[in-house]
Amino acid sequence: MLRVRAVIQRVTSAAVLVDGLPVGQIGLGLLVLLGVTHSDTAATAAALARRVHTLRIMRGERSVADLPATAVLVVSQFTLYGDARKGRRPTWAAAAPATMAEPLVEAFVTDLRALGTRVSTGVFGADMQVESINDGPVTLLLDA
Predict the structure, then answer these.
(1) Which residue is catalytic, options 77, 108, 117, 121?
(2) Which of 9, 45, 56, 75 stands the most exposed, by the fewest C-beta atoms within 10 Å?
């Protein structure tokens, strides 16, 4: 069963740019690339937000919940549900349509903020450039 998917990187800094201008940036924290599929709900987004908030991947086995100086940069990324098993062109059939995905990305961000996390975001549906300095490096694929 497919469900909301995130690639999470521990970073010393990360930024997302649209048309060359920064729209979201953080220092120490987590970069979350977030993909949404057809079966996802607000409850799924909330569960993932809780996991990201308490995930102990910061130095010293701490989480962003433990470190008030940290933040999370959330960037929507439908390509996490790309399927390239056949041929050379990926299919995006497993990715939720924008009308469904955008409110769930917003719900995820709202839930993270409600938990006390400082959150920056990209712009849903925009052509974005993401810059990050991966710390460790630590990168996880997380399904909720």
Answers:
(1) 77
(2) 56
Tell me the CATH number at 14: 3.50.80.10
Count of structural domains within the chain:
1
Token pair recorded at residue 23: 């729209």
Residue 144, in any domain of the structure: no
Please tell me which residue in 78, 108, 117, 121 is annotated as part of the active site: 78
Domain membership of residue 77 as a residue range: 5-130
Q: What is the pLDDT of residue 116?
A: 97
90 part of a folded domain? yes
Asked if the structure places residue 15 within a domain, the reply is yes
The reported pTM is 0.94
| Integer Cα distance of 20 and 133 in angstroms | 18
Active site residue 12: no
Distance CA(95)–CA(111), nearest Å, equals 21
How many Cβ atoms sit within 10 Å of the Cβ of residue 114?
Answer: 11
- Catalytic residue chosen out of the listed positions 12, 41, 54, 79: 79
Structure tokens at 45: 């987004």
The pLDDT of residue 2 is 53
Indicate if 124 belongs to the active site.
no
**Active-site residue, 78 included:** yes
pLDDT at 87: 87
